[in-house]
Amino acid sequence: MIRRKMKQILAIAGIAALLAAALPVMADSEYGTVARTGDTYEARISHSSLANKEVAFLVYDLKGDLDQIDSQYIGYIDQATADESGTLTFSNISLPTPESGSVTYGVYIGAEGLDREKIGEIPLSASEEEVQLGDMNKDGSITAVDALLALRAWSEGATDAQIKIGDVNKDSRLDVDDVLLILQASAGAIEGFGN
Prior knowledge:
This protein is of the alpha+beta class. The chain is 25% helix and 32% strand. It folds into 2 domains: 2-21 and 129-186, Type 1 dockerin domain (Orthogonal Bundle), CATH 1.10.1330; 31-125, Immunoglobulin-like, CATH 2.60.40. It has helices at residues 2-19, 144-156, 160-166, 176-186; strands spanning 25-29, 32-37, 40-46, 54-61, 74-81, 87-93, 102-111, 114-125. The strands form 2 sheets. The chain has a 4-stranded antiparallel sheet with strand order 1-2-3-6, with no helix packed on it. A 4-stranded antiparallel sheet has the order 5-4-7-8, with no helix packed on it. Helix 1 packs across helix 2. The longest helix has 18 residues, at 2-19. It is globular and about 60 Å long.
């Protein structure tokens, strides 16, 4: 039993290494990318002009006026110092989902010598429909990326929301068995999981 689990884990780790670059990119610019990672977002900023500079990061509802920042339109705000190559990452960005309708957030950075630069947009809609089991990135289909996200959630300690989507064998936890089932579904080896 332990030997079988180790083989499964090693197989998943090999697949995860191949898929690491396949996370869905929401937007990108010459300054970086914004990608969805399950229920949160991650912005990877990299530009030589930002080396060792303090970088401001703002996710702002596009209904608001950027020339007169109003706190009611701020979805997320942070700042950090880029390393010597001009690289930094803002992780676990959680944005408020609208109760009804939709909202589009603009993702901006700023630094000394760089006025506000838009690096992307994040559209969000109120969701009243049930999420498909195994669809970790909620894009409507089960792919190898979902298996990678389930693996990441399992290895880092899954949140309740991740367990709700990733517990495809319905044993009340997200574990390696669920990751393997999601991977099999992505390859067409098994049908979906129902809900």
